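User: Could you go from structure to sequence for me? I need the amino acid at each position, not a summary. Structure tokens:
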């Protein structure tokens, strides 16, 4: 269905990001791109880690009841699994309360309740994968190795190549720090059921990952794949930061000579110990 707006008829889309910084930003970038092409964009978000509507006046925002209590906000895997259980019914009721005006739902791949809701409402569903093809394949390999009992691995295997993913070594695998490896495998198994989607938008570019794209098309995904990234390069400028920008380092930087400082980012949820900090310092010298 179409929705009337002051700017004329638009195709109304609802976007459902996973509530973590590295997932929210690409979804907002995609929303900006689609909005610039004439689509009406609604962001359906959890109460946990919600984006700031005031920073995106061109979007509509709808909260989804996530049912998270303070004691449930622990590890990322547990939070995402709980959200997928709790949001399934509340999101469907939210769409029904808006008379199912939306033409299509675009979900983050980790919000796997998409499959049930889209099927119940008979709405087309598109998946957004915020990582690249190599990450998809390495996580798939990791899940298989966990299932085979090869993870955790002995230190003596750290330099061994991961089968069929050369030159990736065992120590390069994206092993979660959570002790609940089975929970990780279950989450990935649900998230990677992308064959039911109308298509998959991937935040990468095929000219850099053509061999990996071919592997995914042959083994994992028969839906159309759209590697249109990097999204932040083609989207109008936007800020989706969940944290207030810390500018306290600027006076220190101003005192340094040009090209004398190296900036290293580990993302918004990474944590490192003192030993690793020292290793990184040595590596930068």
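Assistant: Here is the amino acid at each position, in order:
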């Amino acid at each position: 269905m179409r929705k009337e707006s002051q700017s004329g008829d638009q195709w109304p889309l609802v976007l459902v990001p996973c509530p973590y910084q590295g997932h929210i930003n690409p979804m907002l970038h995609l929303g900006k791109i689609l909005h610039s092409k004439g689509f009406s964009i609604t962001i359906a978000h959890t109460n946990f880690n919600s984006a700031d509507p005031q920073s995106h006046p061109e979007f509509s925002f709808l909260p989804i009841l996530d049912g998270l209590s303070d004691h449930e906000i622990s590890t990322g895997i547990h939070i995402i699994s709980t959200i997928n259980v709790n949001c399934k019914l509340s999101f469907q009721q939210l769409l029904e309360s808006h008379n199912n005006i939306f033409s299509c739902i675009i979900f983050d791949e980790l919000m796997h309740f998409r499959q049930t809701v889209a099927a119940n409402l008979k709405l087309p569903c598109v998946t957004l994968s915020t990582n690249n093809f190599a990450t998809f394949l390495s996580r798939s390999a990791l899940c298989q190795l966990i299932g085979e009992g090869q993870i955790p691995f002995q230190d003596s295997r750290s330099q061994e190549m991961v089968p069929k993913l050369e030159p990736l070594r065992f120590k390069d695998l994206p092993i979660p720090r959570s002790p609940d490896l089975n929970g990780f495998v279950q989450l990935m198994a649900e998230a990677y059921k992308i064959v039911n989607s109308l298509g998959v938008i991937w935040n990468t570019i095929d000219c850099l990952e053509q061999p990996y794209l071919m592997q995914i098309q042959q083994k994992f995904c028969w839906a159309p794949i759209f590697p249109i990234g990097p999204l932040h390069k083609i989207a109008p400028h936007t800020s989706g930061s969940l944290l207030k920008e810390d500018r306290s380092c600027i006076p220190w930087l101003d005192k340094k000579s040009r090209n004398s400082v190296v900036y290293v980012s580990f993302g918004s949820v990474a944590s490192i110990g003192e030993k690793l900090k020292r290793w990184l310092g040595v590596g930068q010298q």
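One structural detail worth keeping in mind: The first strand starts at residue 12 and ends at 16.
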